[in-house]
Amino acid sequence: MPGEWLVEERVAAPTELHASWPTAERDPGVKRLAVCQPTRPAIVLGSTQSSDVVDAQAAQAAGIDVVRRRSGGGAVLVMPDDPVWVDLWLPAGDGRWSADVTVAFAWVGAAWAAALGRVGLAGLEVQGSGPGARTRWSSLICFGGIGAGEVSMAARKVVGLAQRRNRTGVWFHTACVRYWDPTLLVKMLDLAPSQRAVAVEELAGAVTGVADEVTARGGSAPSAADLVAAFSNSLA
Predict the structure, then answer these.
(1) CA angle (76, 83, 130) in 5-degree steps
(2) DSSP sequence for 116-162
(3) CA–CA distance, 18 with 159 (Å, rounded to integer)
(4) What angle do the packed helices 106-118 and 224-235 form, to 10 degrees?
(5) How far apart are CA 160 and CA 124, in angstroms?
(6) Which of 8, 32, 67, 81 could cross-link to 89 by cystine, CB 3.0-4.6 Å?
(7) What is the pLDDT of residues 133-179, one digit of tens each?
(8) Residue 13 pLDDT > 70, yes or no?
(9) Could you tell me the sign of the dihedral formed by the alpha carbons of 74, 36, 225, 118, in that order?
């Protein structure tokens, strides 16, 4: 891809996609973009979350894996087609590199905001390095709050970010929601029925999907491929 990014498609179970990135590990001096296509639905927990936050029986009955990533934050429900999952590998020493883990997100969020502008969204905001928006669900569910570099529209989150790093570079996870409905994720969590009802209601207003917003304005819903292409062009 222009801009010296190497692009690959990674098709695997979520646990494998989070465990390692073999090509980046073999050659960490090269900038890479990976379009991740999970073959199974999964709830992905943040590195410090207890597995007890998930109702294991409900997840098993629904055929949803429970996996863990090595980056922080709350739970994310990933399905084969939503959210759009794109990972980036940036070598240490690249011009975009920052030793500050908060500042490091800025250019990634800016690239996603530019990409969403290309598919018809306006009024996007990229959260700076200061405190972002939080709800009572932020520590439990990733999309319950807005962190550094993340993209929102009218205070409703659209793109979530996470990172993990070592001495050779930084691996960014990015997730862009196409359609948002928190019901299934909330159903899989170990919450009382009354808590679930409140969580669904409040999370419905804390997040929005790109396709939701574009179609509400009379446009055609961008496909996952459209969003990946727009993001790639913004990077280049």
Answers:
(1) 65
(2) HHHTT--SEEE--SS-----TTTTTBGGGS--TT-EEETTEEEEEEE
(3) 18
(4) 130
(5) 14
(6) 32
(7) 778 898 899 999 999 999 999 999 999 999 999 999 999 999 999 99
(8) yes
(9) positive
pLDDT at res. 77: 97
Per the CB < 8 A criterion, the answer to whether 39 and 65 are in contact is no
For residues 215 and 219, give the distance between their C-alpha atoms in angstroms, rounded to a whole number: 5
SS3 call for 199: helix
Cα–Cα distance, 83 to 112 (Å, whole number): 13
Structure tokens, 192: 């009382």
Q: CB-based contacts of 122: which residues, under 8 Å, 6+ apart? A: none
Topology of domain 6-235, CATH: BirA Bifunctional Protein; domain 2 (3.30.930)
